[in-house]
């Protein structure tokens, strides 16, 4: 929990050990106090900030072994450059409190506002959104939803590779099984929380070990290729650099790269080219066309350049989808291959 001025003085620290730092387009007030093995930071939030909708995209739906949102707080286990750490974000009327544990607690506390979406820059988006009445309405309705940025690529890359050309149910089941197999207990008080798999462990495992998880050789080998260069990927300065490096790896295309940088860097312009549904959704929402191609999708999104991915997210938040004419993609099993 956040420490008040009296609590700070009670543990022998000066009451004036508070400050503020400008991040993005807002000043985030904070204090960093180490009490035994934890660090607490207080974060100011913008008006109408929507906590749950901002942090949920980080997690796999229904159950994520590496994090959870329980309605009162958000937990996330992270392998930071300084070592393993756990983050807990709690919301109240005055803002968000971030508490971190583990060897990487200082690094994670420093990036807690980014994880909460509080570095997301909405400057200029309202003017772009005005180009289409539906987008303008959704922008007003969901103005409190911010894009998170975890600044860790490999956990999101693991999920994105597993989601290639299969149903979400298949991919998320495989993700949970892999995290339980290769993860480790996270530091801090959440005993059931797991750290994301170590890329070195993924890279060193024979591909057939992944078959019982429902992952065939093609996706496994793509995952292992990026695991081998995970250290270099984590050092990428921005979304453009990370995208360039990822798409150079066989088995990693524009769709996978966009899915990663939208969460790892909070990139509002990342569009998942190659998705089965998003082109149809964009064509239907912006032009009334029941079906769309990637080219048509990009054409319709061009007026929103700089925030094209944000527009796609707004359509999802608004529950907008194109009419469905065919059967759903079948769930296949590779468990017995």
Percentage of residues assigned to helices: 25-40%
Spatial sequence of strands, sheet with the most strands: 3-4-8-7-6-5
Low-confidence stretches: 1-36
* Ends distance: 49 Å
* Backbone structural class: alpha+beta
The ordered string of helix (H) and strand (E) elements is HEEEEHEEEEHHHHHHHHHHHHHH
Under CATH at level 1, the class of the domain at 5-120 stands as Alpha Beta
Q: Could you say which overall geometry the principal axes of the C-alpha atoms support?
A: globular
The pLDDT mean sits at: 88
What's the tally of helices?
16
Oligomeric organization of the protein chains:
single chain
State Rg: 21 Å
Beta strand %: 5-15%
State the major sheet: 6 strands, antiparallel
Q: Care to count the β-strands?
A: 8
Overall description:
This protein has 337 residues and is an alpha+beta fold. The chain has a domain at 5-120: TATA-Binding Protein. The chain is built from 16 helices and 8 strands. It has helices at 5-10, 51-55, 105-110, 112-115, 125-129, 133-141, 154-162, 168-182, 199-203, 217-228, 230-234, 239-247, 254-264, 278-287, 294-301, 308-317, and strands at 19-23, 26-30, 33-35, 38-43, 67-69, 73-80, 83-92, 95-102. Strands 3-4-8-7-6-5 form a 6-stranded antiparallel beta sheet. A two-stranded antiparallel ribbon has the order 1-2. Strand 7 and strand 8 (95-102) form a beta hairpin. Helix 7 runs antiparallel to helix 10 (217-228), helix 7 (154-162) packs antiparallel against helix 13 and helix 12 (239-247) packs antiparallel against helix 13. The longest helix is centred in the middle third of the chain and has 15 residues, at 168-182. The chain starts with a helix and ends in a 20-residue tail after the last helix.
């Amino acid at each position: 929990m956040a420490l008040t001025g009296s609590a700070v003085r009670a543990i022998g620290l000066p009451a004036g050990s508070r400050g503020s730092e400008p991040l993005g387009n807002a000043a985030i007030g904070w204090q960093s106090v180490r009490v035994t093995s934890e660090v607490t930071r207080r974060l100011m939030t913008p008006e109408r900030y929507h906590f749950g909708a901002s942090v949920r995209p980080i997690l796999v739906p229904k159950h994520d072994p590496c994090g959870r949102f329980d309605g009162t707080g958000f937990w996330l286990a992270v392998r930071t450059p300084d070592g393993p750490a756990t983050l807990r974000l709690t919301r109240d009327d005055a803002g968000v409190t971030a508490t971190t544990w583990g060897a990487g607690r200082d690094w994670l506390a420093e990036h807690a506002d980014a994880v909460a979406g509080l570095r997301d820059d909405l400057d200029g988006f309202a003017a772009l959104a005005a180009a289409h009445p539906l987008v303008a309405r959704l922008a007003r309705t969901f103005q409190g939803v911010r894009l998170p940025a975890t600044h860790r690529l490999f956990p999101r890359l693991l999920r994105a590779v597993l989601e290639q050309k299969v149903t979400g149910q298949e991919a998320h089941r495989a993700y949970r099984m892999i995290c339980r197999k290769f993860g480790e207990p996270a530091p801090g008080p959440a005993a059931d929380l797991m750290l994301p798999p170590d890329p070195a462990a993924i890279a060193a495992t024979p591909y057939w070990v992944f078959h019982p998880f429902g992952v065939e050789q093609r996706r496994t080998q793509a995952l292992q290729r990026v695991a081998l260069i995970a250290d270099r990927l984590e050092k990428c300065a921005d979304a453009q650099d990370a995208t360039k490096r990822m798409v150079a790896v066989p088995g990693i295309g524009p769709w996978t790269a966009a899915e990663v940088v939208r969460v790892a860097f909070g990139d509002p312009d990342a569009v998942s080219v190659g998705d089965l549904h998003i082109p149809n959704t964009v064509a239907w929402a912006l032009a009334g066309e029941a079906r769309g191609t990637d080219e048509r999708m990009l054409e319709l999104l061009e007026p929103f350049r700089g925030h094209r991915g944000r527009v796609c997210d707004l359509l999802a938040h608004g529950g907008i989808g194109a009419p469905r004419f065919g059967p759903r993609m079948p769930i296949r099993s590779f468990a017995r291959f």
